[in-house]
Amino acid sequence: PLSLVRDHRAKEILTAQGITVRSFNADLLYEPWDVNDAQGRPFTTFDTFWERCLSMPFDPEAPLLPPKRIISGDVSRCPSVTLVFEDESEKGSNALLARAWSPGWSNADRALTTFINGPLIEYSMNRRKADSATTSFLSPHLHFGEVSVRKVFHLVRIKQVLWANEGNKAGEESVNLFIKSIGLREYSRYLSFNHPYTHERPLLGHLKFFPWVVDEGYFKAWRQGRTGYPLVDAGMRELWAAGWLHDRIRVVVASFFVKVLQLPWRWGMKYFWDTLLDADLESDALGWQYITGTLPDCREFDRIDNPQ
């Protein structure tokens, strides 16, 4: 919703200058207003939403070919106050990130190709393993628009057809599960569009005033990886060093945060926003509310994972 307001304002300003403005869906498979139930109402659970997406009468649009030439602007004409440069306080953390990540569209394409031709075929078996490169590592590239979610979707579907023709059931299942993970990203934006407050308060209204423990000491120990629980602490140190966590480790550290320390989930979501390279308001809000137990189709509120 915030991005829609921003885009609308930009259109107004440009239109007032006599510039013709058109916008295109580049972040989603389907626009949120296109996916509703038979009565035209938005879905409230992921399963019903995703079932509808998979049965839509039209496939997600295929990505366009890249333009042969892009006319770049003159950066020297930009006011210095609008340009953001690295300052001394950021050099240390940026050096760590540079060791773990290679940004840009060409590196995004390389990561996608590597995943499709490698780990994807065994994704159904290995996706929960956090000790090796079993996932796509595409989330930062998707977040910064370096690769289109529609391109990812169509390329993995092509691979699925090839495996289906070969009778490779494991490959087909892996693609279904990977596309489902894309669906969760899609659903996070769908929820935020229909419920713009998801990053601020729970969807289950009766949990709005849950008595969370407001303890800065607990919060600091969790951030610094000094809780005394090795898996939690290793995850938090990796987050600081690499700006990324495997999905299963995100579940572990988030569950420990809200179920063991009983700290407000919004604190944890804000820290993820500050430290994750793929920090994503919609996806993080969905993840934290799911772990906390404040969504209609989430985990049981009293479920506690063993962090050992």
Automatic annotation (TrEMBL):
Gene Ontology terms describing biological process: circadian regulation of gene expression; entrainment of circadian clock by photoperiod; nucleobase-containing compound metabolic process; response to stress
Marked site (Electron transfer via tryptophanyl radical) residue numbers: W212, W265, W288
Gene3D superfamilies: 1.25.40.80, DNA Cyclobutane Dipyrimidine Photolyase, subunit A, domain 3
PANTHER family hit by this protein: CRYPTOCHROME, CRYPTOCHROME-1
Name of this chain's protein: Cry1-1
Domain Cryptochrome/DNA photolyase FAD-binding: 178-307
Any GO CC annotation of this UniProt entry: cytoplasm
Cross-referenced InterPro entries: Crypto/Photolyase_FAD-like_sf, Crypto/Photolyase_N_sf, Cryptochr/Photolyase_FAD-bd, Cryptochrome/DNA_photolyase_1, DNA_photolyase_1_CS_C, DNA_photolyase_N
Source organism: Populus tremula
Coiled-coil intervals, chain numbering: none
GO molecular function, one term: FAD binding
Alphabetical keyword list: Chromophore, FAD, Flavoprotein
Upper lineage: Eukaryota, Viridiplantae, Streptophyta, Embryophyta, Tracheophyta
Cofactor note: Binds 1 FAD per subunit.
UniProt entry tagged with the keyword 4Fe-4S: no
Keyword Flavoprotein annotated: yes
Domain named Photolyase/cryptochrome alpha/beta: residues: 6-56
Pfam (any one): DNA_photolyase
Family statement drawn from the similarity comment of this UniProt entry: Belongs to the DNA photolyase class-1 family.
Cofactor(s), by name: FAD
Binding-site list for FAD: Y123, T135, S136, F137, L138, S139, F178, D278, A279, D280
